[in-house]
Design a protein that fits this description.
about 150 residues; mainly alpha
Length: about 150
């Protein structure tokens, strides 16, 4: 957020190439990952909302991606099913294709690329739910508690 505001004020951000710290979330359960990803979706929606009038729309591409993969694509598949079940299945085939695309582009080990790809695609669903939570709270003027993942 600070870097975005500094760039917005005309400043230039420099960073060094070397790693300065590592982050260990110590997540050992699927539920922890799910809650962290939900929180990430909430944050993307919040960042997009906060920067909606600026040139740097932070969180917008993440928000649009989550809405596409977790809402629009499944909705189109569900609504097309009564008319053409084969079309609905073809639409849903986009998920394994996306996993394959991400895994092939990966720069990690073979196993890590596939695990990462599966969780990036699966993660669109909690990201979407986090964005729904943010928008619901915004519309109804509610104040959110911190979404803990541990």
């Amino acid at each position: 957020d600070l870097c975005a505001r500094l760039r917005g004020a005309g400043w230039r951000i420099w960073r060094i190439k070397n790693e300065m710290a590592t982050h260990d979330a110590d997540m050992t359960k699927f539920q922890q990952w799910w809650m962290r990803t939900l929180r990430s979706g909430y944050g993307s929606a919040q960042a997009s909302d906060m920067t909606r009038n600026s040139l740097e729309r932070r969180g917008l591409s993440e928000s649009l991606s989550a809405w596409f993969w977790a809402f629009i694509l499944p909705a189109v598949a569900v609504f097309s099913f009564p008319f053409s079940p084969i079309l609905a299945l073809l639409i849903l085939f986009a998920y394994p294709l996306q996993v394959i695309r991400i895994a092939i582009k990966g720069r990690r080990t073979y196993f890590e690329n596939w695990i990462r790809a599966v969780f990036l695609v699966l993660g669109k669903f909690p990201e979407f739910l986090g964005q729904v939570k943010f928008n619901y709270e915004k519309v109804f003027g509610l104040h959110s508690k911190l979404i803990e993942h541990k």
